[in-house]
Amino acid sequence: MTQEASSRGERGPVPCEIWIDREGDWYHRGAPMERADIVGHLCRHLGRDESTGRFVIRMGKQECYLEVEDTPVVITRVLREGGEPGDAERFVLSIKHLDEAEPLDPASLWVGEKNVLYCMVKPERKIRTAVGFTSPWVGDDTIFGRGGRVHKRMMAPTELQQEDFDLTAAGHRLRARRLNRPRDSRGKGRPVLVFLHEGLGCIKLWRDFPAALVEATGLDGLIYDRWGHGKSDPLTVRRPHRYLHDEAFDSLPEVLQGCGVKDAILIGHSDGGTIALLYGARYRQGLRGIITEAAHVFVEEVTLVGIRETVKHYQSGDLKEKLSRYHDDNTETLFWAWADTWLDPGFRDWNVESYLPQVTSPLLAIQGEDDEYATRAQVDAIVGQVSGAAQPLLVPRCGHTPHRDARDVVLQEMAAFIETVR
User: Fold this and answer.
1) 217-231 core/surface letters (b: 16 or more CB in 10 A; e: else)
2) Hey, which residues does 68 pair with through a beta bridge?
3) Coil, helix or strand at residue 122
4) Distance in angstroms (rounded) separating the CA atoms of residues 6 and 58
5) Which helix (H) or strand (E) holds 317?
6) Is residue 107 pLDDT above 50, yes or no?
């Protein structure tokens, strides 16, 4: 409880200056709250102000309200408890930041936007509100395919083993995350899904999508923060125009080697998609397939217009504060490295189309029809010039981040493609 919190008066509770993101992580004044004991203690004092509908932390006569992106608590695990033959199945929920488990009331389940499941926590917690699942419920009996998917049975996801660690690649310390299925599951011995984030992205900005795709495909996953992003080493030199080449030819191979990845399916968003294409042009052994989302292979005027608008938002809006929740002290340097590089007049002629004929791995190229940074000319150039089998996917009513804007469609299309190349 901050010093600003006070006894409730006529004006209602005051702000805690705490923000909870969609993954259930807590931030105070933009900085991550990393003390698990403190966050857990605050979770136990969550409540809701009946007059305003806001979520509050309530301790005795003191209370303050929080800003919540989606739900104040997030489920990290769903376990099925077996019983005697004929007994009803029972599911138990593990909630992020809390040690105790809670039973699931199936009657409280509902599906929200982008096919995310929500439920209600028990009334005794005095916070009858939606709880978001960090992974969709996808079981072995789910059928994926173009044109839709059919759920034969809804099952709790297999528990993923998540490991965060540091490694060195191209001379820089990088933060990485493994998403591994149990050793005896169907992912054993299969290629690894390697996620390459966008120009202002990081591990956390992928949110729960990598875990969802890991669950849907039964394959292990690897995500990492590139140099200057997230919790990796900060940028210390001016970014060269060939920075995407450097990531593809120097850093990514060392990441894969350092993580013991011999067979991979690359999944790259925006800059990450370009990196995946460049990597595929040089390295073919062990590359089962490539999925790009909103990848660029040349600069368009709409790209520059979109970046200029993002710069305005960063300078006068709340974008800087939002990015700082994910990049901490790297935020300022990273943002201007990205913006200054793309807006540099000398970068206007940047083009990597000459590499595309060297890409022979199967490819799925995804782009939103309403992408604010590109036109479909990018997808047409990619699909039309690679040497391997290539599928375009233009998603209607979707912007620059298809896995967020059209999550369900993108998840099923990626899973269907992966099934053909694994």
Assistant:
1) bbbbbbbbbbbbbbb
2) 20
3) coil
4) 10
5) none
6) yes
Rounded distance between C-alpha atoms, residue 174 and residue 147, angstroms: 39
* Paired tokens of 134: 């960090």
- How far is it, in rounded angstroms, from Cα 420 to Cα 422? 6
Q: How far apart are CA 170 and CA 173, in angstroms?
A: 9
**pLDDT, tens digit, for every residue of 35-80?**
888 888 888 888 877 777 778 888 877 888 888 888 888 877 777 6
Q: Which of 300, 298, 274, 242 is nearest to 363 (CA)?
A: 274
Topology (CATH) of 161-421: Rossmann fold (3.40.50)
Name residue, tokens 């490694």. 167
Region 6-68: CATH code: 3.10.540.10
Per-residue pLDDT tens digits for 298-341: 999 999 999 999 999 999 988 999 999 999 999 999 999 999 99
- Percentage, residues of the chain above pLDDT 90: 57
Question: What is the rounded CA–CA span in Å between residue 390 and residue 202?
Answer: 27
CATH 3.10.540.10-classified regions of the chain: 6-68
pLDDT of residue 233: 98
Q: Residue 368 carries which side chain, given as an amino acid letter?
A: G
The residues, any chain, with a CB within 8 Å of residue 249's CB and separated by 6 or more, are 278, 279, 282
Q: 3-state DSSP call for residue 407?
A: helix
Outline which parts of the chain fall under CATH 3.40.50.1820: 161-421
pLDDT digits (tens, 9 = 90+) for 169-196: 999 999 999 999 775 444 456 899 999 9
Residue 221 and residue 191 in contact, taking contact as beta carbons nearer than 8 Å = no
Which of 332, 342, 337 has the alpha carbon at shortest distance from 308?
A: 342
Is residue 385 within 8 A of residue 356, CB to CB? The reply is yes
pTM above 0.85, yes or no: no
Give yes or no for a contact between 391 and 417, defined as CB atoms under 8 angstroms apart.
yes
